[in-house]
Design brief:
elongated; Jelly Rolls; about 5% helix; about 475 residues; 32 strands; 4 domains; 2 helices
Length: about 475
């Protein structure tokens, strides 16, 4: 009661004051209105409520669990445990162990995993998906996964693989021959494939000719007359070599200076019988060695791309009205060691031997054969370009041979690139001034090279490549 209100009535049944609260219980005579507790179904803000009823002290809220927005999520697995990962089910969450989680991921993955430039450590084994077969089309294939078998175009016995399309930087690719009866030939540098370097050592033997001395070549060789050629419109040719001799060498010239011509263009053409490394012999062949004699410079070196046998002819060939013209040059044959026209990196050179006579003029020279280091001479031409090493220069005083004594010479600091694919190479020159000066000698060169090609010719053979964004590179 409040204010001035007074209860003046008399109740029909007297009420004890201590029993007053019992009347308002659910079973009392003056029970308060009650209703079921509200359902807990979503996340909401706290509030006093608006219903005109009360809930009993042991009331229970219904919890409507769901995996939709703003609903409560409950554990839906009896054996969920500490350190488990949580996985949604239709009714809530279940626990997944490390092994179960990995199995779930590997079984359901539909895209690439991105490790965000982090390490993946302690891998016991990497297993790739089964290979799918690719067929070469015009020297190319397109990769779609990390492991493929490769077959030749139209089931040819052999086929070249020059280009691999597809891939992103860092991709690894394994290739295997699809059929043992057919050979895949991967070629270096033709397309976007780069094969790995291979170490090499080559050895050569030498001994002095019986009863003679002079200049000899252990690996590769030069041959040229000491006197130069002086060609004019009145005498347009000079020959070199002997008929039917198996020289198999390139023809070269070293210019004295620019040639002259009163008009038109005058070239120097080499003619004779040629041969190439594909086994083709061509009689009555020719090749232009110098396109315009007036562009020659002193000591400039020119060399044919073809190899020649027997006698060759150098000819001044006039065109465009040239009537008076002339050119002076040294000429001859050259055949360096190109490792079968392969590019290589030379790192080591060594010689060991035993003398067969006393010789104070003995020398060993290692040449790099290319277009540099040549010197023209009108009467005393000595063929050879850049000297990499010269024993007499290095040894200075202690350079003689004594009969029966051993000798050795070597260098391990070359670091020289030799472009065999451009006809460059090396030549080892030995000079003796006493008969039988060298009883025996072994020389060695070493380094590494890039093979021109790699073959896959059996289903038990595979190669691995990595993509750097431009090229598929074979790791060393």
């Amino acid at each position: 009661m409040s204010g001035e209100e007074r209860w003046t009535g008399v109740p029909a049944t007297p009420i004890k004051l201590e029993d007053h609260s019992d009347r308002h219980l659910p079973a009392g005579g003056d029970a308060l209105t009650t209703a079921a507790a509200a359902e807990i179904s979503v996340v909401v803000a706290a509030g006093a409520g608006s219903a005109e009823s009360f809930a009993k002290s042991d009331h229970i809220h219904a919890i409507n669990h769901a995996i939709s927005d703003n609903h409560l999520v409950t554990i839906d697995q009896a054996d969920a445990a500490d350190n488990d990962f949580a996985k949604f089910t239709p009714n809530g969450l279940e626990g997944r162990s490390y092994a179960e989680t990995l199995a779930d991921l590997s079984g359901q993955a539909t895209g690439a995993f991105d490790w965000n430039n982090q390490n993946l450590n302690n891998i016991k084994q990497v297993n790739m998906t089964d290979p799918t077969e690719l067929t070469i089309v015009s020297g190319a294939i397109t990769k779609t996964q990390g492991f493929h078998t490769v077959d030749t175009e139209s089931d040819a016995a052999t086929d070249y693989l020059d280009t691999i399309n597809g891939g992103t930087t860092g991709d690894l690719l394994f290739l295997e021959a699809a059929n043992t009866a057919r050979t895949i030939i991967m070629r270096d540098g033709v397309g976007n494939i780069r094969l790995s370097h291979e170490n090499f050592i080559k050895s050569y033997s030498f001994k002095s000719s019986l009863g003679s001395s002079g200049t000899y070549y252990v690996d590769g060789w030069y041959s040229a007359p000491a006197a130069d050629a002086n060609l004019t419109q009145a005498s347009t040719t000079v020959t070199y070599g002997t008929a039917n001799i198996a020289y198999g060498a390139k023809a070269f010239l070293v210019a004295a200076a620019a040639g002259t011509a009163n008009a038109g263009t005058v070239s120097i053409v080499v003619s004779g019988t040629s041969y190439d490394y594909q086994g083709n012999r061509t009689a009555a062949d020719s090749e232009t060695l110098v396109a315009n004699i007036t562009t020659m410079t002193t000591n400039a070196y020119y060399e044919t791309t073809k190899y020649w046998m027997g006698t060759v002819t150098y000819t001044l060939t006039a065109a465009g009205g040239a009537a008076t013209y002339a050119a002076d040059f040294n000429y001859g044959f050259a055949i360096p060691e190109t490792l079968c026209e392969s590019d290589f990196y030379l790192t080591k050179f060594g010689v060991t031997g035993r003398a067969g006579a006393n010789d104070t003029g003995f020398n060993i020279i290692l040449f790099k054969h290319d277009g540099t280091g040549w010197t023209y001479s009108a009467t005393a031409f000595v063929p050879g370009g850049t000297q990499l090493f010269n024993m007499n220069t290095d040894y200075n005083t202690e350079k003689n041979l004594a009969n029966g004594e051993p000798f050795a010479y070597g260098r391990g600091d070359l670091g020289t690139t030799v472009l065999g694919t451009d006809g460059h190479g090396i030549v080892i020159k030995v000079i003796t001034t006493a008969n039988n000066a060298v009883e025996m000698m072994n020389s060695h060169i070493g380094g590494f090279m890039t093979p021109l090609q790699r073959t896959l010719d059996t289903t038990n053979e595979a190669t691995k490549l990595i993509y750097n964004g431009s090229y598929w590179i074979e790791p060393r």
